[in-house]
Amino acid sequence: MPVRLVQKGPLVSRRSSASLPPSAQVFADLVEGIPQVLGCMKDPAGRYVWSNTGFANRLGIRPDEVVGRTVDELFPVEFARSYAGQDAQVLATGRPLQSHLELIVRADGGIGWYVTSKSRLIGIDRSVWGLAVLSIDLQSQLESAHAGLARMIGRVREQVGHPWRVPELASIAGLSPKQLERLTSRTLGLSPQRLVQRLRLEHAVRLITDTVESLGAISAECGFYDQSSFTKQFRSVLGLTPGAYRRAPS
Question: Starting at the edge strand that comes first in sequence, how are the strands of the sheet with 37-42 ordered?
Fold first, then answer.
């Protein structure tokens, strides 16, 4: 789900890593120095207790400016509600959220796809200490995974309204259709058709954000069958309608 920072409230100091339980310290040590990885931790009440540099950069602030805040203080209400719901479910059930694909608007206005996972953290006394959240920049993953796939994605972005078919996509990637299906499934958890849908939505988000084009015109430009189909797919992936997204505070 796209993210646009909302600045609220006073800033607080970053929690010392000395206060982290062993499981949380291991997580912090693993993700602190990887720029394409966004890592953070929250307490059971939803307050951020730790952020790596990548997550803070995504918001356009420093790690110490993240700590002590909640999603309601950092994100618009539509997006904060979704994040809080995910957190509550993971904390209540103990079942991790794994490989959830989401579209993120970065602090510089750029748009990208990230794969997000969330898991409970257990303290020394075996109680639930909090939540670990990890998001990976999908573009860097794609570029390292397969040059042909990155080339195919670049072509789709250039001609997003084209009625792409799997054999044509596979040819651009230098693969057979079955090889492409296996590669996108393994790398992204998506079929080639679903990947094209995500790229169309990515372009639609840019147009909604940066232009005053009508939603009908955007739907047609991005290759959707009609505006109703566009609205349905937009809401299923991003959690709100194109109109609601356009009205959301920037």
Answer: 48-51, 37-42, 128-137, 111-122, 97-105
